[in-house]
Amino acid sequence: MTTVFLGRIRPLAPRIDIEVEAMAVDDGMIVALGSADEIRRSDPEAETVALDGWVMPGLIEPHGHPGFSAILLSDLVVDLRPVVIPDADGVLAALRTAVADAGGEAVFANGWDALLQRGLPDPDIRFLDDLAGSVPLVVIHNSGHSVYFNTAAALAAGLDRSTPDPVGASFVRDAEGGLTGVALEAAAVEMVVAPMLAKAQQHLPRILPAHLRDLSSRGITTVSDLSWNPGLDPLIDALRAQGAMPLRLRWYEMSRPGGAPSVRGGEDPVFRQTGVKTWSDGSPWVGNIATSFPYLDTPATRGLGLEPHHIGHANYTPDELSAIAEPYAAAGWQLACHVHGDRAIDATLDVYAQIIARHGLTDHRFRLEHCGAMTPAQFERAASLGVTVSLFVDHITYWGEVLVDDLFGAEHGGAWADAGAAFAAGHRATFHNDGWVTPNEPFRNMAVAETRTTRSGYRMPGGTVVTREQALLAHTANAAWQLFSEHEVGALSPGLFADFIVVDRDPVTVSSEDLAATQVSATYVGGVRVV
Q1: 195 alpha carbon, distance to own chain's centre
Q2: What is the pTM of this model?
Q3: Which run of H or of E encompasses 265?
Q4: Of 335, 175, 321, 330, whose CA–CA distance to 252 is shortest?
Q5: Could you tell me which residues are beta bridge partners of residue 430?
Q6: What b/e string do you get for 475-489 counting C-beta neighbours within 10 Å, with b at 16 or more?
Q7: CA dihedral 383, 385, 386, 387 (to 10 degrees)
């Protein structure tokens, strides 16, 4: 049965300025676009649905973490993020209240950010012991790249001074080798939060669908997960069987030293693995990104415990990173690597170049994620290798002033997440949020990339802006291509799935300020309204 959707439709293909009146959908696929009269003449018996607003392709989040975000943003975790609690006093009050109300049970909190929540104390094991006593307390940094824990939490997780550092991660220790209550990078963070993840398993049938519906309400019709837990596959299967899957999911398994790749195969249009994720360096907010330039010496960097002239380091040597990536690339998987610092970017591109040459790869679409300090020359080199980039534009939104004034100065901090340079180098660049770190706000990403202006109105002193076309494609067609899904989604064109959203303003012509404030009134996946 064909359904004809009527409205002010922006297909965004083959150009973004095209507007049509009608879109015919059959069996979830777009079969025709054009004027209302011509579409009706082609199928007079078709059902018609009038859409109140502007219609555009569904948005695509190419670097999400819905599996983990569903837990961290749920009622199982105290939400300390700066977007929720902007000041240090509020953070400490929330922790004290949570401990007092816990009845002795472990407390997990997420979102600690001393750069935005000015005045927070050093959250080492002594401070957390004083705050929580015998109650296990774990506080995850807003970046997700470090975690703080007290003695009771260490005992609950089975950690002590004899616990070895996992490869690519570490536990910070005192002069005698004792734990200081700080863990850095994914493998160590996972060890600390393991009790929370175990407890969350029974709640996932409730909290994961709720999180996916929230993404849909924001206009996201396809989301990737770059830290997917395959243990969630049965839950996804159950949601599909119930007809309750509100979007398409593309996932990446987390690589491990000595890890073996999953078996490749399958073209499921709703749920499938796309690639493999690794981490070349860490987060600018905790001081462990590999740069050629030092952090500034400021009260903020001293508060992070960084010595003057501090330059961060990579998680792996190039040989270690190559050894991790090689079996996955050899098995045909797309590689996606978290990287911020320019030295880490060079090292990752070196590894990619070797793997590409060794296997004669062409359409590999290897990815670089975040790309904070990536330079124009590095964007050009990546493009020449066929490596694609996804930028964390919301670093500008929330931390723009911090990057310039507190961490790196105008030259390096001012050019952070230089989306304009990526497009100038020929990339089909994409934008993203990072799951639990910042709210999922694709329209704001587009507006910020167009203006390089923070939420407080500060204009970044470096980097280059993007056009409206580039901004819109970053969360639609480009993201579909980056996820090897351009044959399915990313535009409103015959032969693609009818994944579209209805918004309250014209995404092509409104100002950047109005684009950021765009509201989604309806979300359709395969021609079926899900929100």
Answers
A1: 24
A2: 0.95
A3: none
A4: 335
A5: 390
A6: bbbbbbbbbbbbebb
A7: -80
Contact between residue 369 and residue 257 where contact means Cβ atoms under 8 Å apart: no
On the question of a cis peptide bond just before residue 14, with omega within 30 degrees of 0, the verdict is yes
* Alpha-carbon gap, residue 316 to 333, rounded angstroms: 20
Q: Is beta strand 500-503 parallel, antiparallel or unpaired with respect to 520-525?
A: antiparallel
Neighbours of 404 (CB within 10 A): 23
Q: Is the dihedral of CA 507, 510, 513, 514 positive or negative?
A: negative
DSSP state of 269: S
3 state SS of 502: strand
What's the mean pLDDT in 488-502? Answer: 98
For 219, the 3-state DSSP assignment is coil
> What are the helix and strand counts (H, E) for the chain?
19, 21
Q: Which of 93, 305, 333 is nearest to 226 (CA)?
A: 333
Question: Is the pLDDT confidence value at 414 over 80?
Answer: yes
Please report how many Cα atoms fall inside a 13 Å half-sphere around the Cα of residue 412, on the Cβ side: 18
Tell the burial category of 75 from Cβ atoms under 10 Å away from its Cβ (0-12, 13-18, 19+).
exposed
Q: Classify residue 360 by burial, with Cβ atoms within 10 Å: 0-12, 13-18, 19+.
A: exposed
Q: What is the pLDDT of residue 42?
A: 87
Identify the CA nearest to 222 among candidates 481, 520, 521, 504.
Answer: 481
Could you read off the pLDDT of 331-384 as tens digits, one per residue?
Answer: 999 999 999 999 999 999 999 999 999 999 999 999 999 999 999 999 999 999
Phi, psi of 136 (to 5 degrees): -60, 130
Tokens of 373: 């300090």
pLDDT of residue 1 exceeding 80, the answer is yes
What would the pLDDT profile of 23-78 be if each residue is shown by its tens digit? 999 999 999 999 999 998 888 889 999 999 999 999 999 999 999 999 999 999 99
Q: Phi and psi (nearest 5°) for 32?
A: -165, 150
Say if residues 271 and 240 touch (Cβ distance below 8 Å).
Answer: yes
User: For 79, how many CA atoms within 13 A lie in the half-sphere containing its CB?
Assistant: 15
CA angle 83, 89, 93 (to 5 degrees): 95
For 311-335, b/e burial (b = at least 16 CB within 10 A) is: ebbbbbeeeebbebbbebbeeebbb
Extract long-range pairs of 90-98: CB within 8 Å, 24+ residues apart.
90/117, 91/117, 91/120, 92/120, 92/121, 92/131, 95/131, 95/132, 95/137, 95/139, 96/131
Largest CA distance in the chain: 81
**Could you count the other beta carbons within 10 Å of the beta carbon of residue 508?**
18
Residues 6+ apart with CB under 8 A from 164: none
CB-based burial of residue 505 (10 Å sphere; 0-12 exposed, 13-18 middle, 19+ buried)? middle
| pLDDT the model gives residue 11 | 98
Q: Is 37 exposed, middle or buried (0-12, 13-18, 19+ CB in 10 A)?
A: exposed
Buried b (16+ CB within 10 A) or exposed e, 454-470: beeeeebebbebbebeb
